[in-house]
Amino acid sequence: MAAGSAGRISPQFPEIEDSRTGSCPAEEDSDNEGEDIFTGNAKSPQLNKGITGPVNKSSKSNGLFLEEEEQDMFKEATVELSLDNSENDRKKDSVKPSVSASSVATSANLFPQKQTVKDYEELEEEEEAGGDQFELNIKVTDPKKIGDGMNAYVVYTVSTQTELQMFRHKQMMVKRRFSDFLGLYEKLMEKHASAGLIIPPPPEKSILGMTKVKVGKDDSSAEFLERRRASLERYLNRVASNPTLLQDPDVREFLEKEELPRAVSTQTLSGAGFLKMINRATEAVNKMTIKMNESDIWFEEKLQEVECEEQQLRKLHAAVDALVSHRRELSTNTALFAKSVAMLGSAEDNTALSRALSQLADLEEKIEQLNQEQANNDFFLLAEHLGDYIRLLSAVREAFDNRMKSWQRWQDSQATLQKKRENEARLLWANKPDKLHQAKEEISEWESKVGQCERDFERISSTLRKEVMRFEKEKISDFKSQIVKYLETLLHVQQQLIKYWEAFLPEAKAIA
After folding, report:
1. Cβ contact 427:443 at 8 Å
2. What is the pLDDT of residues 206-234, one digit of tens each?
3. 136-146 β-sheet, strand order
4. Angle between helix 433-509 and 384-430 (nearest 10)
5. Coil, strand, or helix at residue 165?
6. Number of C-beta neighbours around residue 55 at 10 A
7. Crossing angle for the helix pair 207-215 and 218-240, to the nearest 10 degrees
8. CB-based contacts of 101: which residues, under 8 Å, 6+ apart?
9. 8 Å CB contact between 131 and 153
10. Over the range 366-400, which residues count as b (16 or more CB within 10 Å of their CB) and which as e?
11. pTM for the full model?
């Protein structure tokens, strides 16, 4: 090994460098300080690889390499760049300028973070090829009020049918409270949100709605319970449509375990609930103060699309709410009109006119039912669907925020590492060897942390990219399904109206 090393480092190299390119300050510093012995060892193989024959004075590169071996020299310089960036920085001055351009071009293939294509289309194709290849059907039914007064609560029946082997039974049925759904969401957020997953949110709490359920009659709260039941069913199916979330033990436990520990941190007026409100306010302030230097334009464009889409959905949701209110008001006014026409028909002496008015009153009552049915369709098929996606887009934005937090942790760790290195330099200058060892250990520790934070950021970026692609694909399918259902119900109502009016027309013509 000693002989090989002597063969690689000949005494004439410094003279050649001095005569051709001048002295190299970086090498002198390394020799004087004696602190980078590993870098010194790295030089020898690099020089040995470049020399394949005797030194040729006519070489046009740097006096060490033959002209026909310049391409090999580029490759070796690139390998050195990939192995030791700090050594490469010190050697740049001794290599001719064309090396740096070639090295940069080749290093783009060596460092994954520099790659701009693994095509996003390929990732999308992978998602489609590996799509949801499982059969799982979840139903939330039969909301029942348990207890009386303000201590009352509602339980829902969660029925699951599946062929998946991860479950112990093909058919499962459990009872769950609303707080159990919220508890599942909190657990999933705690475990998976920091990894870049989009966690579907459950329906929002409604203190006013639950107060009506607790103290009011069943009829007055029927619409609220139906609305919440449908929202909880959609929530569970969205969770189960994500393969990663479906494999979570808490999800499987929620679907098949008879009894769950009561989730106490989900209460609105509890201490935990108040603490969450404070944390959300703090995070909102932090997001306004942190400015992320985005290196990938894809994430910046997608975030802008999400924010714009959320804004437009909120406007559309407000318009649909107004439409629902209009149809319900129309239904109420149609019922009043039917009663007035019926009273007029009973007071009319002309038999044909009286019969026609009576039939018109019956027709208006039917139309009142159709208007009420269409108002419900507007609400459950459009308004509720839009409300779900407003919350989902908020979850997507939160996933982007978690990526930004990961980036901030990376930047903070780099800043701390820089401070540690500056501290080491001060200790060297002050000649304090007793503290130097500890400083080097801290630098090594923070270098490891910086590397880990960088890997975490790259991992959450990759996961979030796939999650957004999956979300967009499911959104298109979901919107198509809901719009088709809505148009079918709208067409059915209009066809019924035509039939009613066509049946009444002969009676109106028969008035004499």
Report:
1. no
2. 888 888 787 776 566 888 899 999 999 99
3. 136-146, 153-162, 171-177
4. 170
5. coil
6. 14
7. 130
8. none
9. no
10. ebbebbbbbbbbbbbbbbbbbbbbbbbbebbbbbb
11. 0.69
